[in-house]
Specification:
This protein is of the alpha+beta class. It has four helices and six strands; from the N terminus they run ααβααβββββ. The strands form two sheets. It has a three-stranded antiparallel sheet. Helix 1 packs across helix 2 and helix 3 packs across helix 4. Its main location: cytoplasm.
Length: 142
């Protein structure tokens, strides 16, 4: 049985999809409600979003979750943050900001951007432009 969402969450999620020109399919709306329905930002993995969708009663495959997250990233609704080259997190906050990666819990959180200073970047190869700089600060217990 599918969990009933608050109509405001559905409205917020549908508007989020529409802002990027994405068609509001049932599965996209269900995943968007879990991601932005309450207005809060999220850092999720495909696996954690899949588990949350199943807990909410949505019959969506892990492959669909991956494909939907990629579509959200391509539409500019989310950013993918890769940790260790093997683990991807998807962030609903799309402005430039650094992250903490908590090695003990394998979680990703926002780090205070106002405390980060990048003095310079290497020269960009000809014909290229910087699209984004990802800063991931890895943390473990001292």
């Amino acid at each position: 049985m599918t969990q009933a969402f608050d109509p405001r969450q559905t409205q917020r999620s549908t508007a989020w999809l529409a802002s990027a020109g994405l068609r509001p399919t049932r599965q996209r709306i269900a995943l968007a409600e879990l991601l932005v329905g309450d207005g809060e930002n999220r850092h999720v993995t495909a696996e954690s979003l899949h588990a949350a969708s199943r807990a909410a009663g949505e019959a969506v495959s892990l492959a669909t979750v991956y494909n939907t997250l990629r579509a959200f990233c391509e539409a500019g609704l989310m950013n993918e943050v890769v940790v260790d080259g093997s683990k991807s997190y998807f962030d609903t906050r799309t402005d430039d900001h650094p992250h903490y990666y908590w090695e003990d819990s394998h979680s990703l959180t926002d780090a205070p951007a106002e405390e980060l200073s990048i003095a310079s970047l290497p020269k960009v190869p000809e014909g290229m432009t910087v699209s984004r700089v990802d800063v991931v600060i890895r943390l473990r217990k001292a």
